């Protein structure tokens, strides 16, 4: 399915080269709906389209939305906002991540 989406993204990019687009499939924002994550009252970030956002794991979502954010506070707020958006309890998530690292 992602292959089909990437092909659409390439076509979208040829039609609208001046627009930016989804970080995963490449669809231009004029052809798809962005998924905005608000990490503070007035600040939001859209790294992915809604289609891609809804079809990847929580770890992938965090990777895409935090890769352009460099300061720790913003990254932490972004992760919190993504977890909240996905209805995942933050303490439980970090506990599971710690366990995954230990078991590696
Ligand atoms: Zn996409």
Physical arrangement of strands within the biggest beta sheet: 1-2
Distance between the termini: 30 Å
Helix content: 40-55%
Q: Mean pLDDT, rounded to whole units?
A: 94
Task: Give the DSSP E fraction (strand runs of 2 or more residues).
Answer: 5-15%
Task: Output the structural class.
Answer: mainly alpha
Q: Main beta sheet: strand number and arrangement?
A: 2 strands, antiparallel
Bound small-molecule species:
zinc ion
Describe the protein:
The chain has 104 residues and is mainly α. The protein has one domain (2-103). It is 53% helix and 11% strand. It has helices at 2-15, 50-53, 58-66, 72-85, 90-103; strands spanning 34-38, 44-49. Strand 1 and strand 2 form a beta hairpin. Helix 3 (58-66) runs antiparallel to helix 4 (72-85). The protein is globular and about 45 Å long. The mean pLDDT is 94. Bound molecules: zinc ion. Zinc ion binds at residues 22, 24-25, 27, 48-49, 51-52.
List keywords for this structure.
104 residues; 5 helices; binds zinc ion; two-stranded antiparallel sheet; mainly alpha; 2 strands
Task: Give the SSE layout.
Layout: H1 2-15, E1 34-38, E2 44-49, H2 50-53, H3 58-66, H4 72-85, H5 90-103
Antiparallel strand pairs: 1-2
Helix pairs in contact: 3-4
Bound molecules: zinc ion.
Residues 22, 24-25, 27, 48-49, 51-52 line the site of zinc ion.
Brief sketch in words of this structure:
Helix content is 53%, strand content 11%.
